[in-house]
Here is the input.
Amino acid sequence: MLNKKSVDDINVKGKRVLVRCDFNVPLKDGQITDDTRLVAALPTLKKLINDGGKLILCSHLGKPKGEPKPELSLAPVAVALSKLLGQEVKFAADATVVGDNAKAAVAAMKDGDVVLLENTRYRAEETKNGEAFSKELASLCDVFVNDAFGTAHRAHCSNVGVTEYVDTAVVGYLMQKEIDFLGNAVNNPVRPFVAILGGSKVSSKISVINNLLDKVDTLIIGGGMAYTFMKAMGEEVGKSLLEADYLDYAKEMMEKAEKNGVKLLIPVDTVVAKEFSNDVPFHTVGRGEIAADEEGLDIGEKTRELYANAIKDAKTVVWNGPMGVFEMSNFAKGTIAVAEALANIDATTIIGGGDSAAAVNQLGYGDKMSHISTGGGASLEFLEGKELPGVAAANDK
Ligand code: AMP
Here is the structure.
């Protein structure tokens, strides 16, 4: 059980609080095109403002690769956040992030004030967890709050290094929710516990499959990774995605499932086409019937039913990765069917970030899920059973 101190466990009145946020928003011509991440940050920020903290916010934005890039400045975020919070967010425009502007702005703060630092990745040390930048960040504050789950699987100065030089390091509400669902619900699930894994490759989800086979009652496989499992069972898969190097691994996982009493489901029918395109004819074939010149691009209708049935009575479900090439409308039905099945059950439903989160949101099922993770890479590492440096760095309760 991960039991980390949160913003509810500290007193920030009159204290300088450095908050690592996830303000990695999409920008076009200097304008923020989607402010979801800013809105998501508000509960933690408002709580700390109301408690009388002096808030110093920091975040990365894009990949400036260790040098100032004006197009990746956080200045537009300060403007947008000022509107959302209904109070001034003072922007400290230092190319070195912790420079004269930041120091002066922090020195002048009153309780409840908010200052935003420049893009932390303007500094080359940030992604290397360098000591000097970590110390500079720590010198600005008395308390550190991490609310950026998207980078929790990385040890950088602004989420891990800084905590070595600050006595109090806690998590914000966004991080807390990720820990509650991905960390704790997955490790201590109400059963039956079903995991659904899709996406392109077995190789990128090896550790997830392996770890989940020790925890779930049913493991459902879809997407491009399913063909390696079919091939491992001796079936032809035509031109479908296949990772020949992972056939033995797929066999091992099937054996592990059997040994652990886990029901492992792979597609019973497949939507195939002769080309990887939305503009060519397609049809559905059964197991072992994929022709040499065809490739599988989605799960078929019978599989959609099989999977929806397998999910129906679950009490905890975690889903990561699409069931087919959902970016093409002809091959999106499998992914839509899984999203619908999850939206209609009475269970704790947890969506790993990335494509499955996008699919659920696009279909308008966002509100029907218990938790949609904001971090693709970080959520996968949680599902692999790994300790995330950004989570580990927070004080235990
Ligand atoms: P991942 O990043 O590994 O989660 O994979 C996501 C990608 O897998 C999406 O872009 C899907 O289009 C792709 N994908 C899903 N099913 C298939 C398939 N049957 N063949 C090729 N690509 C697929």
Notes: Residues 7-173 form a domain with the Rossmann fold fold (CATH 3.40.50.1260). The pocket of adenosine monophosphate is lined by residues 199-201, 204, 223-224, 241, 296-297, 321-322, 324-325, 327, 354-355 (CB under 6 Å). The chain has a mean pLDDT of 96.
